[in-house]
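RECORD TYPE: protein structure
NAME: Peptidase M48 domain-containing protein
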Amino acid sequence: MPLLRTAYSLLFALTMVALSACESPQMGLRPAASGFDHDGPEQRLTNLTALDQRVARVAWRLSTANTDLCPVVRQSAGWALHSAGQYSAEMRSYAESRFSLDGDLPGVLSAPSGSPAALAALETGDVIVSVNGERMTPGASGRAAQFEGLAANIARLDAAFARGPAELSVRRRGQLISTRIQPVSACGYEVQLNPSDELNARADGRRLFISTALASFAQTDDDLALILGHELAHNVLRHRSWSETGGEGRTVVAADCDPRLCADGNHERQADRVGLYLMARAGYDPAIAAPFWRRFAESNWRVRYPSLAHASAGVRATRLEAVQAEIEAKRASGEPLLP
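PREDICTED:
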């Protein structure tokens, strides 16, 4: 799951709805404010970067550990990429200075440990100039923030990875270096961080979204894996589908969903259960699920009560304790961790 800089979707309603479903901003853009409004642009960039890198690390583990369960799989480098063209005018100069970004050229924001990007010795601040001799497109300068230019370059990288190992030309501290990426199979969903002060996350069949506020609320990587695992579960269970024609995710009833996973008709309950398995399979601790939900209820009164799609936080915590016990029993007996 490569990380894209901007929006996310998650586990509670797809989203934590008692948090009501979120409306994501225009894809890929970094607003000048939102989520860290009390900070100046340079500090907001620092905060966003730390969250992006953390989300990328957790998403990568979830993605590679659950490839066999994901309906959509692709060859991935495991990195998080960004570009100067994504940033608002207020933040762009800081991003360019800190990360040596140039227009729409993909910059490496994060290369999680163990990922193909890390094994190829790529670093934060590297800028990808070409893949297999095909140059990335830098785009025009001085434009308003937009994502399309970076998206086109990412598509070139993805196409190269689909054919196998790829040779990259990378600019690092003013020097061009060459490296070879050996991509690996991973769940084929983009992950996006959405600068927002709403506690919110969702999935749309193509991507996972999480707000900066919710990512910040997650105190540990285990907490973050719980949230992202729930959202990934929505896509694994085919609760959301992506329409290339309509250009948006739709809620669907998946006819091909494994009846053992979809016996309970409530999508959120299904995603809670399967998501806990997904995080456990990635090596995260499922025992944090119930305490997380109880802590979340202390901070957000809306999740203390049931909604149309979601049980109350207390009920979800109790149910997840039962799922945790189920996982521990399978581990003790040597059974595979399949939901």
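COMMENT: Confidence is low (pLDDT under 50) at residues 4-35.
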